[in-house]
Design brief:
The chain is mainly α and 224 residues long. It is 65% helix and 0% strand. The chain is built from 15 helices and no strands.
C-alpha cells in the first residue's frame, strides 16, 4: 500500500516550478499549495495508483495534487463504489480546476440514480460543491430528456458566487450548442442573472458548432 510520504516523493520528482507559478495564478486562491505537477502526469499517476483509492482518501489535503488524485481515483470507480465515496471528496473541492476535471464515467449509464446527488450538491452553501453539481450536469445530462432538469436547476440556484454563475453559463452554453432552439427559448423566457445570461451567450458564440446567423441572433439577446 502506498504511503503519503511515497506519494509526495513521486510527485516531487515531476515538479515543474514554472508550471506551479503559472497554475497558481490561474487558480486565484493563495491558500492552495501546489507541488507543480502537470495534469497529464497526474492522470498517469492516477492510473498507476488505481486500487489505492482508500489509501489516498486517508491522506491529508495539504497539496492541490493530492486532492486532484483523490478525485481522479474516486471518479474512476464503478458506480456502487463511486457513490460510496463521492461525498468524501466533493467537500474538498476548492478551485475550478479540480472541480471541472472531477468526472465519473460510471454516471453515464446511471443518470437517474445519480440525480439526487446532483440536486443535493446544487443546494449546498459551498461554491465549488454547487459548481460540481453543474459540471456533472454538463458532462452527463445535456440530452433532450434532461433539458427540463437543467433549466429548473439553473433557475433555482441560490448561490450567486462567481464560479457558480460561470458554471451555469458554461452549462447553458453547451445546451445552446446542442439544442439551439430550446436554449434560445430558455434565454428569452428564463430569469438568469445578467452576468450568467451574457456569459452563456459569449461561450456559445465561441463554439464553431453554432452557425454565423445563430451567433448574430444570440448576440442580439445580450443584456446591458
Amino acid at each position: 500500500m502506498i504511503t503519503y510520504e511515497k506519494a509526495l516523493a513521486k510527485l516531487q520528482e515531476k515538479r515543474d516550478e514554472q508550471y506551479a507559478a503559472f497554475h497558481s495564478r490561474l487558480l486565484k486562491n493563495e491558500k492552495i499549495k501546489l507541488i507543480g505537477v502537470r495534469t497529464p502526469c497526474l492522470r498517469a499517476f492516477a492510473k498507476e495508483w488505481k486500487g489505492e483509492t482508500d489509501a489516498f482518501l486517508a491522506f491529508p489535503d495539504e497539496y492541490y495534487e493530492i486532492t486532484f488524485l483523490k478525485c481522479a481515483l474516486v471518479g474512476a470507480l464503478k458506480y456502487e463504489e463511486f457513490i460510496g465515496r463521492v461525498d468524501k471528496v466533493v467537500p474538498l473541492l476548492d478551485n475550478w480546476a479540480t472541480c471541472d476535471t472531477f468526472t465519473a464515467p460510471c454516471v453515464r449509464n446511471r443518470r437517474e440514480e445519480f440525480l439526487p446527488f446532483i440536486q443535493k450538491y446544487l443546494q449546498s452553501d459551498r461554491e465549488f460543491t454547487v459548481r460540481y453539481g453543474l459540471v456533472m450536469l454538463l458532462h452527463y445530462y445535456v440530452d433532450e430528456q434532461y433539458l427540463p432538469v437543467i433549466f429548473k436547476s439553473v433557475e433555482e440556484l441560490e448561490k450567486i458566487d462567481y464560479y457558480v454563475m460561470m458554471g451555469a453559463a458554461w452549462l447553458i452554453a453547451e445546451v445552446i450548442v446542442k439544442y439551439y432552439e430550446e436554449g434560445v427559448r430558455f434565454l428569452k423566457e428564463g430569469s438568469l442573472p445578467t452576468i450568467t445570461h451574457n456569459k452563456a451567450i459569449q461561450k456559445a458564440c465561441e463554439s464553431f458548432r453554432v452557425k454565423g446567423e445563430e451567433k448574430a441572433y444570440l448576440k442580439s439577446l445580450r443584456r446591458l
